[in-house]
Design brief:
0% strand, 92 residues
């Protein structure tokens, strides 16, 4: 008679480079972002652009919320670099 041993399943762990502290896991509503003036958009605009998939967001529990990394990414979307930093085509 042969006995088989069941292998213990290993649960996935957080990937390197993930949230380092709990503050990175807090979800903010569009109203909270507008009240804190973190972005130059109204709560309605944030919600509309998130629904249109223009802005990154979370939809946990069916509600549109933003993580701190989403807020940073939205701010970076509208950065304008100086003209001297543009990539120039290589001379032929």
């Amino acid at each position: 008679m042969t006995t088989t041993t069941a292998k213990k399943q290993v649960r996935p762990t957080a990937q390197a480079g993930g949230a380092t502290d709990l503050s990175e896991l807090v979800h903010y509503t569009p109203e909270q972002i507008e009240a804190a003036a973190w972005l130059p958009y109204s709560a309605r605009t944030l919600r509309d652009k998130a629904s249109a998939r223009v802005f990154p967001h979370s939809r946990a529990g069916g509600r549109i919320t933003f993580l701190p990394r989403h807020i940073r990414e939205i701010a970076a979307m509208h950065e304008v670099r100086p003209a001297g930093e543009r990539k120039r085509p290589a001379a032929a």
